[in-house]
């Protein structure tokens, strides 16, 4: 064993006091400027619980997000299907209205032709059918094979069979 020098021990004690003083000042500065909580004595348990809670929350949010994505996909599919149905219905209605317009145009044309024939028959003094009809009514056979009878001022078209197609 060596004998320790008194001066060496005194110097070591002085350096230890200075070091302690510096550490205390550092601690007070840290407390003054650092507002955040310093870690607890056993940080591993606290951090482990925090991480576990965060992990569970992340899983819950991912599950919720996937459910919302599925709902959104279903809604988009229904919206597209509804849109296609609407477009098809619009085309169907336009086609039916176009058919109806064409039928009405043809009917108007036929009526105008029949009126012209009737007016030309009534203006002519000799009708080939006047002698055949003792009631005084003339018969005309129009192009669409419907029979029109003129009696006084009333014109009635002959009844026709309805088409099996829906016009609306």
Automatic annotation (TrEMBL):
User: Which terms in the Gene Ontology molecular function aspect does this entry carry?
Assistant: molecular adaptor activity
In terms of InterPro entries, this protein maps to: MT-associated_AKAP9-binding (IPR052593)
Residue segments, region Disordered: 116-137
Instruction: Tell me the GO BP annotations in alphabetical order.
Output: centrosome cycle; positive regulation of microtubule nucleation; regulation of Golgi organization
Instruction: Extract one GO cellular component term from the record.
Output: centrosome
* Amino acid composition bias (Low complexity), ranges on this chain: 118-127
**Where does the secretion signal sit in this chain?**
none
Q: Which PANTHER family match?
A: MYOMEGALIN (PTHR46501:SF2)
Name recorded for this polypeptide: Uncharacterized protein
- Organism annotation: Pleuronectes platessa
Source organism lineage? Answer: Eukaryota, Metazoa, Chordata, Craniata, Vertebrata
